[in-house]
Amino acid sequence: MSNASATAPRLIVPALGRLYATLGESAETLMRLAAGLLLATHGYGKILDPFGASGMVESLGFYPGVFWSPLLAATEFFGGILIAIGLLTRPAAVAATIVLAVTIYFHGIAQGQGLAGAEKSILWATITLFFAIRGANSQSVDARLGRQF
Fold it and tell me: Global pTM?
């Protein structure tokens, strides 16, 4: 008996164990794909106008805006693509988590919206933090290359 199966919790409905084992990695891949593609979609407008957020980032104290705005655009757009395909997953997810931590501050505190304004960013930051820690799974470019960051 393996150590993993000895410490696994007993299921209330044991017949579901096989289903969970079969779908678990696919569900994680689906979450990575959705998170990455939605992040890239969110960054698409910014990548078309990379200096468009200069004023906004400077209002948060990030000077010069002409440096930080394109970095924000690249992190969202290209980072989202990298997360979606599972290439350099951890660094892309760390960068996205940092951006999302700033948006939590921006919406929750700077704009005074509290939890109502920051909750989506909190959820997104939790998802990207998961991939920053966990990395991609076997259904990723990282796995195909046989290397992870």
Answer: 0.88
